[in-house]
């Protein structure tokens, strides 16, 4: 124990002594001792440990903060990447939806065209086809896509078609040609237009647009007949006015003679016949004038339920006489329709008379009204259990001077005038019919009259359309 620490501390001090040999001469060593207070050694060691612990803590915290920063940046980058992916996905979905809508619109337009539209590849396989062509071939669309043309047509017809396809591809421009193709056991003359469809390289498929030449000629004939009927209508208008005057004179003198003729006499019966025939001529002239002179579409309003009841009250006796069971179903709360009451009653009169004529041995007539669930049109249906309309007459029932009754029972103007009256007010007349030999149910015909609701009347202002 040395004295200097004792003087500083005032007591005994523990010391640490370290001995180390020091060579003096060969084979002889000195011992050197280093004496240090144990407290100083402990303090030095403790401070060293503290500094080491502090450095380690700093390193650990630095690593922890670095790791947290890395995780934060990684999560932020992941969120940004996820947001970009979501935006890209949304844009892609929007683009796909737009493409799908465009494709559906294109498909609806192509399918609505009443011409044959087919895309044929260079290998002779069908790559696309519209609904009209599918219907013409009498197959399903799924059964035609990808099939060779040679499987669907006669060998000669398929060979001629593919020859025009390859010719259009070789020329690199459109080609017009006539084809004879046998479909459903019938030879059809087609006028075709072949158009090569290039993509990135040379054209490898051809668009064929074809129409039936016979159908085209039939449409031309219909247009010719329409123009002829228009001329006839103008002629009938002039002739009708000229005939009305002598008919009025005949009916006037007949009425005078009837007043003078005694009851039950043969003279009175003859005059009655003359009057009936004169009134029949008058009705024919009135129908001709109604067909020839259609006034402009007006804004008249009428209640179809009242018009139906008015006509059925007039014809009630005739229906009972012919043993026809009437079933009436009129919907309540229907809006007023855009039509003239008198002319609309004429339409209902014609349809009811036709229904009675179709049931000479009795039957059932169902008259109903309703508001169309989708079209929002006021619909009036006349459904009879009669003999139906033959298929060869179905396309001509609305043509003027085409009677469906027996000879002498009609003029053939009733349905044409009714069609014109309804069309004048923006409505339509359609029908469904079955004869005794048709499948799907008992025979009968249903005529459906669809009328526009009348514009709503507003106080102090013009009518407002519904």
Descriptive notes:
α7 (266-292) packs across α11 and α8 packs across α10 (341-357). Strands 4-3-7-6-5 form a five-stranded antiparallel beta sheet. Strands 9-11-12-14-13 form a five-stranded mixed beta sheet. A two-stranded antiparallel sheet has the order 1-2. It has helices at residues 4-9, 38-112, 131-137, 141-144, 155-171, 213-260, 266-292, 304-314, 316-321, 341-357, 414-424, and strands spanning 15-25, 28-37, 116-121, 126-129, 175-183, 186-196, 205-212, 301-302, 324-329, 337-338, 363-371, 378-384, 428-434, 444-451. It is built from eleven helices and 14 strands.
List the helices and strands and how they pair.
Blueprint: H1 4-9, E1 15-25, E2 28-37, H2 38-112, E3 116-121, E4 126-129, H3 131-137, H4 141-144, H5 155-171, E5 175-183, E6 186-196, E7 205-212, H6 213-260, H7 266-292, E8 301-302, H8 304-314, H9 316-321, E9 324-329, E10 337-338, H10 341-357, E11 363-371, E12 378-384, H11 414-424, E13 428-434, E14 444-451
Parallel strand pairs: 9-11
Antiparallel strand pairs: 1-2, 3-4, 3-7, 5-6, 6-7, 8-10, 11-12, 12-14, 13-14
List the helices and strands in order: HEEHEEHHHEEEHHEHHEEHEEHEE
Percent in strands: 15-25%
Number of helices: 11
CA gyration radius, whole angstroms: 50 Å
Mean pLDDT: 80
Share of residues in helices: 40-55%
Net shape: elongated
The biggest beta sheet reads: 5 strands, antiparallel
Q: Low-confidence parts lasting 5 or more residues at pLDDT below 50?
A: 294-299
**Could you tell me the number of beta strands?**
14
Instruction: Kindly report how far apart the N and C termini lie.
Output: 121 Å
Computed structural class:
alpha+beta
- Order of strands in the sheet with the most strands? 4-3-7-6-5
**Please, what is the oligomeric state?**
single chain
